[in-house]
Design brief:
The complex is a heterotrimer of chains A (538), B (176) and C (238). With 538 residues, chain A is α/β, with parallel strands linked by helices. Chain A has 23 helices and 14 strands. In chain A, α11 links the parallel β7 and β8. Chain C has a five-stranded mixed beta sheet, with helices on one face. Chain C has a three-stranded antiparallel beta sheet with strand order 6-7-10. Classes of the chains: A alpha/beta (538), B alpha/beta (176), C alpha+beta (238). Chains in contact: A-B, A-C, B-C.
Chain lengths: 538, 176, 238
């Protein structure tokens, strides 16, 4: 395929789509109930009324507002229906081109829609994830063709560097720098890996991206492979994401058939084969060295860095490993330019970030906002605030590796720096909102239990320390804790943070530490007075 | 000089630590010159007295009675020494903690085809589910690990405490 | 590059070494004692026990000496109160994790964990014991594996895979449920790959692996001359 063929394909498919007067797009994410039945129902009604030539019913990726799902979008007109049931099909079809069904209608000027800045999620919910033609008609693979025909690898890397993009997996390492390192690393063979082992409780950004726009991830990966000189790659997805796996598999197959992947891509001398690898359910395999071990077929446990994967990664070869959302940012950066990307966000944190809003919040779902937006705006305007008349208590960012930010810091902008200054982390983008009915000790203990269960067991501090921290938190929960227990808790947190082998162990105490910082009184309230003889510490 | 009041207490242990204490041989006379033995399994005193200077405790805490005796000893003593591994780590008595007291009693008294299968219970303090070291209940001022700690170690420790040696460097370890 | 000689300071002492050598190697060469448990000369270093963590001037993080290569001008400190505190806590955590009863152990008096506690001044275990219910695998004709005493250092796994070439041992499960297993979790005696060489027994730092018939304190371990074996093999290959 060359640029002209790509353009022809895009035009042809666009004409096909424009041939319909109405498009009905149904959210077909894994999280929305009954969407298969809704699609089937709509198609049946359309067929019965002989509207096949005028109305196209399509499945689409996630539209973000999961709390009100399933969502159905009618084009033209940008009419959004919420909480749709299969039984609503006739009414929806009957209303096409007339007054929308008021019962199902969502106002289009909801802050949830108007305050977002969709870049990575721009095509999510707008195209059929299982159709490469849909992606191409929407401009997809244009960046790749541009890169292959007009840019040298060094130009691509410079563009990514100038964009200021930082890793979206959590640590925020500058993406361009990583690419430059891999590109310069000596080695005949180089690999590229996409980390789709999203495992934080409450996080579903990567899943949604993979389910909604798998080709966007592939395009980013192909461009990255070209830039660093890799010819083989792996997409590591957790097996708990069957729909993402299915759509990725299909996307790889379709891209290969269109010569966008495989041997001599688009007639150039560049080869790239991509394969899927499924994670077997270990959280630690999201850590890059553990992930690499898992791809190699070994036990998924981390190893000390350095050497970093950029120098010695998969099978000892230089390896570029980036997160799903990072790759999804690449094609837009190439298409719109580094300057455009760098104009969004803050000084140190550029671009947009996808967040998964969950917990005690009205509009639970997936949102994308420019970096630097205050937490308050995300939670109270886009997220619609706290339901059932309850009050906000805190928001946990970064999942089990992050911290809980209280009300007084809600005006802090979301960026790598500000969240880390608040004792939390950006993480991969999970935001769990907590209201006043939840005890911080319960929340923190939940995360510690997660870390304890998911510790790989390799290094002593994490394997044994998480067990003891969990036990101490139980003593607070049961109001049996003493001042000694509090001291021991802080000592153990410091040990894990300073001495654990990998990022998981090092960040496991973060929820405890941040709650001790902002909600210390809850711990103190659960201690027994110093002069009462304590229960046996067992 | 006023003699210091020394007590020793025997909880769930084999009495090996007390034997080791006696193993200090002729140095016992040096100790005797410095202390009054106000309570000990080696002396016939029924009630743990008040105003004790130093108490050496052997054994783990295995029953509610052990716990009560430990708390009384702590209340009435200035310095409390965990003497030997059972008092320091739980050691042998704590080996049952894996299964709990009940399972252990059933295994020993009922499931080994004894002549008269019964768990002894009359007039015996019931066992705690877990046998634990002293510091899980009270503050311990000095730990002397060892099974048993050598006589030399015990003498050095006691002599050091009585003469007020600030930095006690005891050459002993778990299991020693 | 590998023959470049670098100079650095460890605990105030000026020392030198090759760019391919680690802080631990150079420290030991110069009689500077850094405690270790998972590390054993001749086996690959995995940096998992975290006892050899040291401070390096200019770096906010701690570094495991066994896998950190020396650099020119490095200033390393190995014995600060902070580091000793972490080491004491790690040793105590290991004692609390499983059922270590020194007084009745075959390795009493010859155990690296016991010795570490002694050296670091650990005279009691601040953390409550976990008391897990663990198995003793006595199915092998000559050896015993007692999980109660295992610290998961994986020396046995590495010596079997890297030196003996059998790879009988590995680790199953994760976190606190991690266990050393023979083959695909068979009783040791049924292992089809075990050659019975006994290297695992002799590299084991505790009484977890021992010879049958040994009673309390009788299990003296003879560390096989791994560096010698490794050195000879490397020469052969060249």
């Amino acid at each position: 395929m060359n640029r002209e063929e790509l353009k022809n394909l895009a035009d042809e498919h666009s004409r096909h789509l424009e041939g319909f007067t109405h498009h009905i797009l149904v959210c077909a994410g894994l999280g929305c109930p009954d969407n298969e039945a809704i699609i089937a129902g709509l198609r049946r009604v359309v067929a019965e009324q002989h509207l096949d030539k005028q109305v196209l019913v399509r499945k689409a990726g996630c539209m973000g507002l999961c709390a009100l799902g399933p969502i159905v979008l009618i084009q033209p007109g940008e009419i959004t229906y919420h909480n749709v049931h299969p039984g609503d099909a006739e009414e929806i079809v009957a209303a096409l081109g007339k007054e929308p069904v008021p019962r199902l209608l969502l106002s289009e000027d909801l802050p949830f829609f108007t305050r977002q800045y969709k870049n990575v999620l721009a095509l999510s919910g707008r195209i059929d994830p299982e159709s490469i033609e849909d992606y191409i008609a929407a401009g997809g693979y244009g960046s790749l063709l541009g890169v292959l025909t007009t840019m040298r690898p060094a130009d691509v890397i410079r563009t990514v560097q100038e964009s200021g993009l930082r890793g979206r997996g959590g640590a925020g390492y500058p993406t361009g720098l990583k690419w430059a390192t891999v590109a310069k690393a000596l080695g005949e063979k180089k690999f590229i890996i996409c980390n789709g082992d999203e495992g934080d409780p409450g996080a579903f950004m990567d899943r949604s991206i993979l389910e909604s726009t798998p080709h966007a991830v592939l395009e980013g990966m192909i461009i990255a492979a070209y830039a660093v000189g890799a010819n083989r790659g792996y997409i590591y997805v957790r097996a708990e994401y069957p729909l993402a796996v299915k759509r990725l598999q299909r996307a790889i197959h379709e891209a290969e058939r269109k010569n966008l992947l495989g041997h001599a891509i688009c007639g150039t001398s560049f080869d790239l084969t991509l394969q899927l690898r499924l994670g077997a359910g270990a959280f630690v395999c999201g850590e890059e060295t553990a992930l690499i071990a898992s791809v190699e077929g070994r036990r998924g446990s981390p190893r000390p860095r350095p050497p970093y994967p950029a120098g010695k990664g998969l099978w000892g070869c230089p390896t570029l490993i980036n997160n799903v959302e990072t790759y999804a940012n690449i094609a837009p950066i190439i298409r719109c330019g580094a300057e455009w990307f760098a104009s969004i966000g803050t000084e140190q944190s550029k671009g947009t970030k996808v967040f998964a809003l969950t917990g005690k919040i009205h509009n639970a779902g997936l949102v994308e906002v420019p970096m630097g937006m205050p937490l308050r705006e995300i939670i109270f305007e886009i997220g619609g605030g706290i339901p059932d008349g309850h009050t906000f208590k805190g928001v946990q960012t970064g999942g089990p590796s992050g911290g809980c930010i209280p009300e007084e810091f809600l005006d802090a902008p979301v960026s790598y720096e500000s969240l880390s200054a608040l004792g939390s982390i950006m993480g991969s983008g999970g935001m769990i909102v907590i209201d006043e009915t939840s005890s911080m000790i319960d929340v923190v203990k939940y995360f510690m239990e997660f870390c304890m269960e998911e510790s790989c067991g390799k290094c002593a501090p994490c394997r044994t320390g998480t067990v003891q921290i969990h036990r101490l938190l139980t003593r607070f929960q049961e109001r049996q804790a003493t001042a000694d227990d509090l001291a021991m808790l802080e000592e153990l947190c410091d040990l894990l943070k300073s001495a654990s082998l990998c990022g998981l162990g090092q960040s496991a105490p973060n929820p405890v530490l941040s709650s001790l910082r902002y909600f210390r009184q809850e711990y103190l309230d659960r201690m027994i007075p110093a002069d009462t003889p304590g229960e046996a510490n067992s | 000089m006023k003699k210091r009041r020394l007590a020793t207490l025997w909880l769930d242990g084999c009495s090996g630590c007390h034997m080791s204490l006696l193993d200090t041989d002729e140095r016992l006379l040096d100790l005797a010159a410095q202390v009054d033995m106000v309570f000990s399994p080696l002396a016939d005193i029924k009630e743990f007295p008040e105003q004790v200077d130093v108490v050496c405790i052997e054994g783990a805490v295995s029953s509610a009675e052990d716990e009560a005796r430990l708390h009384r000893a702590r209340r009435h003593s200035k310095l409390l020494i965990a003497m030997g591994d059972c008092a320091v780590t739980g050691n042998i008595p704590a080996m049952r903690n894996v299964h709990g007291a009940d399972a252990m009693l059933r295994s020993v008294y009922l499931e080994r085809e004894p002549l008269q299968a019964q768990i002894p219970g009359t007039n015996l303090p019931p066992l705690r589910d877990k046998s634990l070291p002293l510091h899980h209940f009270v503050h311990v001022d000095l730990f002397i690990p060892g099974c048993p700690p050598a006589a030399d170690t015990l003498f050095t420790a006691l002599n050091g405490l009585l003469t007020g040696t600030a930095d006690l460097r005891l050459d002993t370890r778990f299991g020693a | 590059m590998s023959d470049t000689i670098l100079t650095l300071t460890i605990d105030g002492q000026p020392v030198s070494g090759l760019a391919t050598e680690t802080i631990l190697q150079i420290a030991r060469e110069n009689k500077i004692d850094i405690p270790t448990l998972c590390y054993l000369e001749g086996l690959s270093a995995v940096g998992s026990c975290r006892l050899c963590m040291v401070e390096i001037e200019g770096s906010p993080k701690l570094h495991p000496a066994c896998v950190t290569l020396i650099q020119e001008g490095m200033v390393v400190t190995t014995q600060t109160e902070r580091l000793q505190g972490y080491r004491r806590n790690i040793v105590q955590l290991l004692f609390a994790e499983r059922n270590h009863v020194c007084s009745v152990c075959v390795s009493n008096g010859h155990c690296e964990l016991q010795e570490l506690a002694h050296k670091l001044g650990v005279d009691h275990i601040a953390f409550p014991g976990c008391y897990p219910e663990l198995e003793v695998d006595a199915s092998h004709r000559r050896f015993v594996l007692d999980h109660n005493r295992c610290v998961l250092c994986t020396r046995c796994v590495r010596v079997c895979a890297e030196i003996e070439g059998a790879h009988t041992w590995d680790v199953k499960n994760r976190g606190m449920r991690s266990r050393i297993v023979a083959d695909l979790d068979t009783p040791w005696g049924d292992s089809a790959t075990c050659t019975g060489c006994g290297k695992c027994v002799h590299v084991c730092p505790t009484g977890a692996l021992s010879e049958k018939g040994k009673s309390v304190a009788e299990m003296l371990k003879k560390r096989p001359s791994l560096p010698y074996l490794v050195a000879n093999r490397t020469e052969e290959r060249q």
